[in-house]
Amino acid sequence: MRQGLVCELVHAMTTYGANVRILISDKDNTFWEDAEVSKGASPGTKVVSELEETVRRLENLRRRLWTLKKKDRRIKRGSLEVRVYRCIPYCSILIVDGSEGRVARHTPYLHYTDSANVPSFDVTGERDGKLFAIYRGIFEDVWEASDPAFEVDLGKDPPSEQIRSSTVDTDSSPARAPDGRRQSESLAEGEGNR
Fold it and tell me: Which domain holds residue 146?
């Protein structure tokens, strides 16, 4: 998960009260043990290591959100929910369903191609919105079949163990002002992570 995206998510949650949902492939899926599958999915890296790093960053984000909530009692809404799924990932789906419109960003996983070199396709909810509804339905189906990893609800007080153990993520820069992008409501996988 790229750092700029993390900052955008923090800003969207703490400023706009966005509800962010992230789906991540389960690192314990047996298909990741197959060297050819892993190589084809993410050339030059080990998918399991990437998934572990993504989960570590999201756990740091969870601590950072509770720290921000503790420091700024004006934060009354917004959430982050992370789940892991067992099915084979074929794409990343980012859903933005905000006041400025509806967009589904589809990024396919192309074999033997680094995610930085793969095009993304934006599908809007304009006109009849049928294609957008299909992407949202796919996300919801995988979401329902996935297992919870953790959740942060900024509308509630942090659990006591989070207050004691909260530290700001050292590899995260402070949240920055938005540059005209829409707030994120749903996110499947995080950009560049399988």
Answer: 3-188
Edge to edge, what strands does the sheet with 79-85 contain? 121-124, 101-108, 91-98, 186-188, 19-25, 79-85, 147-153
Per-residue pLDDT tens for 54-73?
889 889 999 999 999 989 88
What is the CA 164 to chain-centroid distance, rounded? 25
Q: Position of tokens 């509800």? A: 19
**Statement: the pTM of the whole predicted model exceeds 0.85:** no
Q: Is residue 62, in this structure, part of any structural domain at all?
A: yes
d(CA 23, CA 147): 9
Amino acid in the structure at residue 63: R
- Note whether residue 194 is domain-resident: no
Q: Which ranges of 21-46 does DSSP label H, i.e. alpha helix?
A: 35-41
| Number of domains composing the chain | 1
Among candidate residues 151, 115, 121, the one with its CA nearest the CA of residue 135: 121
Domain for residue 168, yes or no? Answer: yes
**Cα(190)–Cα(2) distance, integer angstroms:** 8
